[in-house]
Amino acid sequence: MTANLYPHLMAPLDLGFTTLKNRVLMGSMHTNLEEQPGGFEKLAAFYSARARGGVGLIVTGGISPNIEGVVFHGAARMDDEAEVPHHRIVTDAVHAAGGKICMQLLHAGRYAATPAAVAPSAIRAPISPITPRELSDEDVEKQIEDYARGAELAREAGYDGVELMGSEGYLINQFLVARTNQRTDRWGGSYENRMRFPLEVIRRVRERVGDDFIVIYRLSMLDLVEEGSTWDEVVTLAKEVEKAGVTIINTGIGWHEARVPTIASSVPRAAFTGVTEKIRSEVSVPVITCNRINTPEVGEQAIASGQSDMISMARPFLADPDFVAKAEAGRADEINTCIGCNQGCLDHVFEGKMTTCLVNPQACREDEPEVQPTDAPRRIAVVGAGPAGMIVAATAAERGHKVTLFESRTTLGGEYELAARIPGKEEFFETLRYYKKRFENAGVEVRLGQVATKEELLAEGYDDVVVATGVRPWTPPIPGLENAEYLDYLDVLEHGKPVGKRVAIIGAGPIGFDVAEYLTESDEHVHQGKEGFMAEWGVDTQFEARGGLTEPKPMPAVERDIFMLEVRDMKVGKDLSKTTGWIHREVLKKRNVQMWGGVTFKQVDTGRVELEFRGEEKSLDVDTVIVCAGQRPRADLAEELEGSGVKVHRIGAAQEARGMDAKVAFAAGLELARTL
């Protein structure tokens, strides 16, 4: 029997009327499955896969208790008996898989993207175009009753409990702070009055569902906005919440409008567990910690050190539904780790798309047929070990094919590995660790540092060749550039060529931003663990300042002057990730990087860039020009092999570079591997 490497994480938690089999909560995240045709069947498959994977308790994505509280038009709500049978499909599937599940009741308040939006006061959120209607006293009573009714229906639908979303700047949170509650009646004014709303919600929910039903309260411990709660108010609320009858207190960090990163890959692991530890000493009910916990080691440490009673992870269960089972079996090195990129999950949600996962394209498609073993094994060569090549090689070998993976570099990952070198993207290395283990388990022969030639591939007698050779940098047609000395992003990130003090970066897409961050990072900058991160973004590590905010520490001077120059007339960085792009822009702004959009290049020579910006002619004297203006496929091998008798498959950027990124490449690679 395998020794339990994570005894605290895997220990049962006795709640009195029920016991959780371990200390791992699958935290709430919206998937947009709820609104899909056949959405509840899809949700049932999604959640039951995580229940089979061993998670102790699941919390659903936010479900509104009424039509005013929906996050967007048509979003799911629990306000009618007619909804109960749909949810029964989900709860029955989770229970059949040995799991427990709670419904999160979430009222968006002023964050609701509908004309029906309501709030304690008619104050528009900075991230919303809609000014909410102020609730009357009678309206407030109705909202409380709707919460209680939603919880009652959740119990009828077979849920093991509910989580009341009291953080992240949603309705309950809006009642708690003067920033959003300027009322003068019994629901506003003093803190005693402002916390009346959440306490009434909890009391009436508990009355309606009885004592043998889990009630979790998600408490905003760090609002990270001006005029947020003080620590004394947070403690007062936590104690009153316990008295009102909650089973567990969950941690909430940051409002959606906060200008502090909380879940991006650049946020240190377990960055906010300290605040949970501080509240844990004030209450006797179990307390859950959350945010940027993505390995069992981090979770074990949080519980073993007394910082929390449970851990909450959401996106890590997108990346790997078997996270808990693998950890419990001593196979943590086989976990497909969440890299915190947000590209397939939060970005998709905010764009109205169905959630998926960059590193696990099967996420939210659990109702589709699984990859099946082949009944006709073949010899397959995969050329290129970027995202598309890695997933094709691993999946094809697991299906039963004999696979050889060729990579001209001496490392796996292709340009994905280059991205992992960017400060704040170190999590990307976890994906490479995961694939190394898959290759080992599946028997993939990996040949690093070897260029696959047509002659060699034909001589070795492969039945299929998958060309996943990725991209090469593209040089735009700028006057003078063809005769100038310049670098491309590979020269900088892969080959380490020297870069001067004054730098012009041509192109301000994701690669341009990566290069700029790479060139402006120093040992004195942010990536020095929690303390350095908190100092840069102005988070009070003592948690005593209102909202948890303090003055950001001035960043040390950057040794380089960098100009990012973009031809497209747009806000520079507009095409970055919807939920993390602002972080990259803010970082470069702090490092005094000049970001110019709508540039017209007149002439580029060695050491000089002539351009027009905002109607003004400019001449930049620089030491180095770096071109990050786009990419073109490397498909030479595929063309050479055409007509040779071997079956050739182009995949990833070797097929189409435009719009290609790791998320698209992993997904395309999986689909190809299904058919080989």
From TrEMBL:
Residues 379-653 form the FAD/NAD(P)-binding domain. Transmembrane segments: none annotated. Keywords: Flavoprotein, FMN, Iron, Iron-sulfur, Metal-binding, Oxidoreductase. Residues 9-334 form the NADH:flavin oxidoreductase/NADH oxidase N-terminal domain. Signal peptide: none annotated. GO terms for molecular function: FMN binding; iron-sulfur cluster binding; metal ion binding; oxidoreductase activity. Its cofactor is FMN; [4Fe-4S] cluster. CDD domains: DCR_FMN. It holds the Pfam family Oxidored_FMN. Coiled coil: none annotated. It comes from the Bacteria. SUPFAM superfamilies: FAD/NAD(P)-binding domain, FMN-linked oxidoreductases, Nucleotide-binding domain. In the N-terminal section; belongs to the NADH:flavin oxidoreductase/NADH oxidase family. This is 2,4-dienoyl-CoA reductase [NADPH].
